[in-house]
Every structure is written in C-alpha cells, then in structure tokens.
Amino acid sequence: MGIDTVERAAATPDEPQPYAELGLKDDEYARIREVLGRRPTSAELTMYSVMWSEHCSYKSSKVHLRQFGEKAPATDALLVGMGENAGVVDIGQGWAVTFKIESHNHPSYVEPYQGAATGVGGIVRDIMSMGARPVAVLDPLRFGPADAPDTHRVLPGVVAGIGGYGNCLGLPNVGGEVVFDPTYAGNPLVNALCVGVLRRDRIKLAHASGVGNQVILFGAKTGRDGIGGVSVLASATFDAASADGAGPSKRPSVQVGDPFAEKVLIECCLELFERDIVVGIQDLGGAGLSCATSELASAGDGGMTVDLDRVHLREASMAPEEILASESQERMCAVVAPSHVEEFLAVCARWDVTARVIGEVTSTGRLVVTWRGETVVDVPPRTVAHEGPVYHRPVERPSTQDSLIADDPARLPRPSTPDELRHTLLRMVASPNLCDRSWVTDQYDRYVQGNTVLAQPEDAGVIRISEETRLGVAVATDGNGRYCRLDPYAGAQLALAEAYRNVAVTGARPLAVTDCLNFGSPEDPAVMWQFERAVTGLADGCRALGTPVTGGNVSFYNSTGDTAILPTPVVGVLGVIDDVSRRTPMGFSTATTLILLGDTRDEFGGSEWAWTVHGHLGGRPPAVDLDRERLLAEILVSAAADGLLAAAHDLSDGGLAQALVESCLRGGAGARIALPPGADPFVWLFAESAGRAVVALPPAAEARFTDLCTTRGLPWTKIGTADPASDALDIAASFTIPLADLRVAWTATLPALFET
Amino acid sequence: MAARIGVVTFPGSLDDRDAARAVRLAGGEPVPLWHADADLHGVDAVVLPGGFSYGDYLRCGAIARFAPVMDLVIGGANRGLPVLGICNGFQVLCESHLLPGALIRNERRRFVCRDQRLRVESAGTVWTSSYALGDEIVIPIKNGEGGYVADASTVDMLEAEGRVVVRYLDGNPNGSYRNIAGIANAAGNVVGLMPHPEHAVESLTGPGTDGLGFFTSILSRLVGAA
User: Fold this and answer.
1) B196 is annotated as an active-site residue
2) pLDDT tens, B181-217?
3) Which of A80, A724, B176, B202 is the 20 to 30 A CA-CA neighbour of A212?
4) Could you tell me the domains of chain B?
5) If you count residue pairs, one on A and one on B, with CB atoms under 8 Å apart, how many are there?
6) Could you give the ipTM of this predicted complex?
C-alpha cells in the first residue's frame, strides 16, 4: 500500500478509517474532519486518537478540574502551576522544588514488573522536563485482597519493578502506601510520585519558541513498544476476556523500561541544563512523539516541522503511524537554538545518548510531519494538544448511597474486656492494611544520594536540599478509598488532611499539593458523581489549608469486573523544613511524656477496625475540621523548630493503638498509657477521628508545649509515658503486651503471604 | 594538604557523590574520575562507588572492568595503590581479578536495603585501620546481587590469611558464603565490600557514623606516609 499522504487523504474523502478501533467516537471523528477540512491521514488519525484519549485530553474530567485553579489559595510559593509537566514551588534560598504524582494502573495489571517500572520512569522524566534533578520517589500502591492468588502475581512484580527501575536510577524511595481491598483485585493502583530540585531561576518549560530553533529527539531508540498505551490501555476498562488471557493480549501495549538508559539520560539532561542550552523541553511518555511535538508546538510559536526519517528507529520497517504513537521509554525532545546544536549533540555523545535533529520551529501555525519525502501530517497543533473534546458527563448520586450511610458501624459488636481489647489490638496490627511494610520497602533503596533524613515507615519522607543551610523538603501521600466511598467530598478532604498532617508531624510546613485521582468509568454517572464530589472536596480543602494543587493525574476506567474501584484520590503534600536537623521522627526512644493532640470521638465509619474485624463498610467517615488541621500543623511545626518534640506520630488508620505500636517498635521504647477517667478504652484506642497526633515530650519541654497548645486552643490530653527501660505496651487497667509479641504480630504478615 | 581520593564515575554509577561526600567529611579531597579518561589525575587512592555501571548488563561489573580508567586502577592496585570497591565497585574488583570470587544474585532473589550489623574481621588493611578487630558496626546494605561466592579453597585461604574484612551479623542478607561482607587482597591495599560505608557517615542521613572509619583509615594512612 502507498503512503497515506495529506494529498491522498484530500483525494480520497470516502476511504473508510478505523477510528472506532483507535478509541474515537463518531462525533470525535467528525470533528477531526471538520478541523482539517478533509479526512485525516492515517498518521493524523493516530495522533488525534492518542491525544484525544481520556488519558491525554482529560475530556471527562476537565470541566471539574477547573476548580483547582478557580479555588486556588493565594500563595507566593507557586512558581509554575497546573498545565505544565509538573508544578514548581519556591522553597526559599533560591531553591525550587517540582513534584508530581501519576498513575500506571492498567499496565501494571497486564505486566506488573514493566508496568510499575515504566511508571517510575515516566514520572521521573516529567520532573526532568522542568529542568530539575530528581531527588526522591514515593509509591502509593493498592492491590486486591492480600491472600488472593492474583495479588501474588501482581504485588511482587510491581514491587520488584519499582525497585528494579528506581534503584537503578539512584533515586531514594522515601514513602508511599500499600493498601489491600477487594475492589482493586482486577485493577491495582500503581501511583508514583517524584520530587525534583532546581534553582528557581532555571525552570524549563515545554515550549517550542524561536522560529528556526531546532527540535532534537534524544535518548533511546524508537520501537514498536507501548503503541496505544494511552488509548487502548489507560482509557478503557478491562473486559473479562482480555483480563484472563482468553482475548487478544494487551501486553504489547505495555512499554518496556531500560533504567540504565534513563539514568544516563538524567545525567545528560542535567549537564544540558547546566550549560543553559535548552530553550524548551518535553519528555516522551504517553502518546510519544505525537504528544511531545504537538504540545511543544501548541505552547510555543505555533508551528513545527518534523522529519520522521531522522528518528532513530529500533526497527527500520516502522510505519509513520507507529513512529508517532510509539511509547518507547527513555526519550526526551528539546528545542535548541541553532548555535547550540553542536554543543548539545556533543554533551549527548559524552553520555552515549543518541540525539538527532528531527525538526524545526516555524511560524506557520501548522505541525507538518514528513516521511520519505511526503507530507503525512499537516495540522494545527492546538487542535491536537489543547483543543480536544470536552465532555459534560452525566452525574448522578447513586441511590444506594443512602443505605450505605445508614448502615452505621454502631451496630457492630465491640470488644470490651481487657482480653478482648488485647486480642483486637494484636489482630489489627497483624492485618494486611496495618502490618509492617518492610517486605515491600526493603526492596527500595532509601539511602542513595545521601540526603534522606526520614524515609518510610516515618510519616513523611524528608530530603535535605542544601548541605550548607540544611534546608529540606518533606513529602507524604495518603488516600482512603473507604472514606471516599462513604462520602467522596469528605473522603478527599480526609486524604488531603492526612497527607498535610503527615508532613507537619515531621516538622515541615505544608506548601503545595499534587493529586492522582483514581476512579471507575466516567461513563457511569455514579462514578462521575464520586469524581465531582471528590474534586470539589479537594479544591475546597486546598483553599482552606492554603495549599494549591500544582498538578497531577486522572486515572479513569479502574474496575474489577463490573465493580468500580473504591473512589481513590491519592493526595501528595509537599512541605519545607528550614533545618532538617530539627525534623521530628516517629519513634519513641527516650523517656518522655506522651500527649495526644486533638479530639477523639466515637468514629468508626470506614474504619480499619470495622473492615478488618467485621468486613463492614458503612456509615459516615470521620468528621473533617480543616481549621483544626491547620492549627495542629502550626503547633507541630513551631514545636519542632523550637526543639520541643522528641517524637511525633500522626493518628490515622487503626487509631491511637496503631500509632502507639508503631512508635514503640520504631524507637524501641515501651509505653505506659493511662486513658482519661471515664474514657471508653475501645473508642480511645481504635477510633479514627481526624486532626490528631501523639507527641513525645522530654520532661523539660512538657510545660512549654502544653502551654502553647492551651494558648492556641488545641485540645491536648496527657496519656502516659514512653520508657526505654520498658519492653511492653501497657494500657493501664486493661492489658499489657510485650513489644516482642507486638513485633512478631506486626512483622510476620507480609513475609508469610509473599515469601516464596 | 589533604590527601586526594579519586572517585570513579561510570555511566550508571549512583553513589559516586555520596562517596565523594564521605571523603570530604573524613577530611580528604575527593577527585572525580571519569570512566572514559585514562587519567588518575595523580590521586593517592581510588574509590569505585556503588551503582549499576553500564546498567550491569552482561554481569555486574563485567563491562566496567574494561573502562579506560580501569587499566590504570588495575595497574596501580597491583603496585600498591589503595582501592576501595563498594557494592558495584566490589563487583568490578572481582571482575577485574583484583579480588577473588564473585557476587551472585541474592539468595532470596530480591533486592534488599537495610541497616546491617557487621563485625570487623580485619583491621590490618589500609581501609580498616581505624577500626579495632571485632568492632561491631551498623552500615546500610542495598543490593540485588550481593551473594559472595568462591571455591572452598579460596574461601579457606581468605580466612587463613585474615583477608575477610567484614562479616554479616544478625542474619545473612544475601546468602554470602560464611557471611562474608567484604574481603581484601593479599597486600591489604585493595578492599571490596557489599555494605555502603559512605551511607553511614552522618547521623542525620544514615543509621549512624560507623562507616566513616573506612575513609579516616585511608586518610590517616596517606597522611602518615606523606
């Protein structure tokens, strides 16, 4: 067959085209014809189909995501906001930090190792494309039931993939989550967050500016892997046939990663940035060259020529459509002034990175792509990159929501005797969602780069930015799908509040937010209702806390069979800490007084206790009080700066009991707890009321700290002492458990499940 | 004048900056060495850092040994130049035949990162003279292919000649023969170990400062010799 050129397309208007197979709807195809005034060439059709996919165009979510901008709190910290590859935040002293979270859910189900590995690779390139050196990654993960056979295929592969790729890049992995729930059985959530650092006057953007500037593709060769990754995989629900292997395999749509290629690409980019010879830069991820060229051109002077014959191919027989849609990893695209091209190519050669000039910036307002001397694409780039379809999907609160809320956990039998409480605590700490994560996190390098001040299981990862001034950043991710299922508005705010609190607990001041919104099918009005409520809750919450959303990712079409996943917005919060040597760790290691901050209420809706012990999900999630969260954070940050705190730990899943166990085991000290007179020990130990933390105070700091709380109006309760000479957790008048027993219960679960 | 310690960067090296920091914190002057340059820039000692040199394709360290800079490192080591290989650097030293044996995939076939207790089994090398024999230290390990293996007679020889430098305590993380974490050559100027002393040089960022001794050892040796 001959080449489907622009000329040929104009001459053969009625030639049938496989737009439906490429994921385009009838009206979308009609619109492309209208934009072009003819039928698209097959190369153009490929470009539009990948760029107008849900994954790239945000066509179902766009109308809701606008709230993040409209409701953004005023802040001086934001240097680059939403819409770029990643947001950039000013952290002072001339330093800026960029961070972003993304999903790689569907590929990780089809091919766990490569799916998760390339998820890390993709987010790292997003950070690099801002001109930053990547300094840390975090991986929030969600899987089906811990004991389900398929989880034993998916989890070890995902974890090995994250480690295999991230460790090889030399990026410390400092946090994240591991959560199990049946709704993720056929659709794990593999989210990845990367943090990068740059000087604030060296920010790079994905703009192709300056007519005559050269477009350089550099990095790995372009091959046939990952074609259709964004449209075939990320923008559709798995059907039963493809999931169990009976249907056509989707594995070829998963990209294959080469972390070594990415590592040298990182070093190569950093040298290019250092020499200041890059006008604009864009990574090649989803939708490959289609995305990179159309976005660069659309955001720049509006025109670009690209010659596909100059692209360094892995397989010479690739068709133009394949070259444009390939999602081969470890590639970047830069715009460079002609006078710097030689130097640019020399730097690439020093790092053994292949680089080719493939095009030029023009003022024509058209993206023109040629192949073998023929024009195969001639389009206005904005129509590809920025003016895709926008849907107002139907939104409808599901009728089952009322009965779900009415099913209050108050009806569930509760432990009351000391022995029952003791047994409950041991069962809870050993449960898959609360047990020790080291089987997973020990497969990640947390030390590389030598700047890791805190890493998991601490509440947030803390990274030193400057050895001279000890300036640092803290990052945490959180999300609770059960809370969101009960109330997506409140659930999203609870995720935000927890990540915010986790950052503050380490002594860092929360500054900005990134989010990964994992939901079911946008074509289901009930899912769109969850989505709309969650986005609204998050936008309102960010305004209340003064932390703008800087960017993130939407992942739709996540479901197991016909059941949508729990609505799972995962929220990442970034904070700054002026002196990392003042960070607050979570472990009890010295003789201290333990103070519980905040209010404890009888709140068990969506709780880990209701789920673990009774398999129950119903009622309302814990109440949200963002003013309280803000006050709590201010006190934690100021007390850390003043050196008052020996330790602090956020209270969340599993409540006070879980926090005490984790802090005792982390620091090695026992604790004697005396709950206030009249307190219901079950409620005090296991309720999941928000806005709480436990702090450990050296005797000399106690009065000063409690005076601070009293003055500022933060409720505090003295609950006991930590003691390095004690080797037990003792709940006065109730029960005692030796730390050794707690350690066995807490650590045995994941190895027993996943050790092969 | 501070002793000058070269730190080699191969494509894929990861802990080169960390090794340089450790040299600096110990009081030395780190000198970056580039894999493709056949020039040691007159350094007094060399550190081969951790990472995945050349992607560890083929075998860990197998390609790095052929880097232009390694000709000089190997020649120098045979004439007494102090060389420390950490993790991937240890693998490179074995591939270069500066140290006997090999490092294979971890017993449990998983990457493992943890704070590892070690016992110093030889304070007689130029890299461990700051320690006392029998010192117990905690240093991070992080490797996927850290299982030390050699034929029985080689291991017996290493033991008999006091060339086992550090040994794992409280659990062998990777299946190394006889819990061997690091070894030396016969002259004691070349040491390779899987644990990462450069990640235990500041209490702020490591499990402690137990690793600093590797760097102070060589510096006191070089200053003493000057």
Assistant:
1) yes
2) 999 999 999 999 999 999 999 999 999 999 999 999 9
3) A80
4) 4-225 (3.40.50.880)
5) 86
6) 0.96
